[in-house]
Amino acid sequence: MSVKTKKLSQVTLLSTLAAISATLLTTGPATANAAGTVHERSHVAAACGLYRDGDAAQYKNCSGAGENIFVTYLLGGNTYFCVPAGETRYVGRWSNVFRVYNRGGC
Q: Where does the record locate the signal sequence feature (predicted)?
């Protein structure tokens, strides 16, 4: 008894790859808190830490002290920012920000 396999058409293959790519692109970068725990941020502006505001990546400090954050980018150099207590800081374009790490106080 032989088993027949069906070859996928190029259109089906490309459609599947496009769907997978769209899923990967729409998931946001994760952020790590001071304890090293990784949290996935939603698109809610009231969230603490990294969040999306349109095409802007924002970091909101909800703590009572300044936070020194290290931002890594997909393209270009990485940088540090000091975000004062209770303030929000623009850290770059959402599509270019890879991760944000809290490096303690500033």
A: 1-34
pTM: 0.56
Beta carbons within 8 Å of 4's beta carbon, 6+ residues apart: none
Domain ranges of the chain: 49-105
CB count, 10 Å around CB of 11?
8
- State the CB neighbour count (10 A cutoff) for residue 6: 5
At 102, the amino acid letter reads N
CA 8 – CA 83 distance, rounded (Å): 51
pLDDT beyond 50 at 104 = yes
- Helices (H) and strands (E) counted in the chain, each on its own, are 1, 8
Give the containing element (helix H, strand E) for 41: none
Report which of 56, 54, 42 is spatially closest to residue 89, judged by C-alpha positions.
Answer: 56
